[in-house]
User: Fold this.
Amino acid sequence: MPSSRPVLYVFAISHYCEKVRWALDYINIEYELRHVAPGVHREIAKKLGAPGTSVPILVSDGHVVQGSAEIIDWAEALAATTSTSLIPAGPRDECLEIERRLDEVAGVHVRRFFYSEALVDYPETVKPILTKGIPFLHKLLVSWKWQLIRKLMIKGMDLGPEQFEDSRRVIEGELDWLDGLLSSGRHYLVGDQLSRADITAASLLAPLATPPEHPTYQGLELPPRLATDVLAWEKRPSIRWVREIYRQYR
Assistant:
């Protein structure tokens, strides 16, 4: 085990950061949580020597790990001698393939879907949750540079009305896929235990399911078009499953 607790840098609002937090909690790895401010996170990543600028970033005994899947890989290796694992005994490749698809498709489009309305048309609903848990001086900095931060986020994530509709179509396709996986009545996406595929699916779809057990989304204010779609999807098997997985394991 590391000589001191690992440090995990996150955005409170990020569903990828929630994925990592949940996995570390489930594996029983203690860590120090540090919320970072948008914009400031780039300076932190550079200072830490991370290869990119995104969060989550984990630092343990000088070792820097960046990205949700990569941090879970690190956690799995650390916990290899314990009985807690997020990899099913049999279908390992299937588990990792489902996780990869969720990371690269659902996670990306849920984020663009949300921000394309919230950040573009209702930015003041986003700022409180983006700055949740960050130091007071960083909150002041975000308030001072909010319009610039917002502009950079809109450009960096390719946000707008057309992107909203495009991501909405992709999300519906991914929900159809997950509904199909669950149609046999299975409780887990892979195998007979909670896996990193389940945590990934539940975490990345949490902005659409807003489960009460989520550490951040209880107060999430959805803009009107997005709220209408979320209401229309709430009885889908995949969305009901997300809420149930949160209720049981988070």
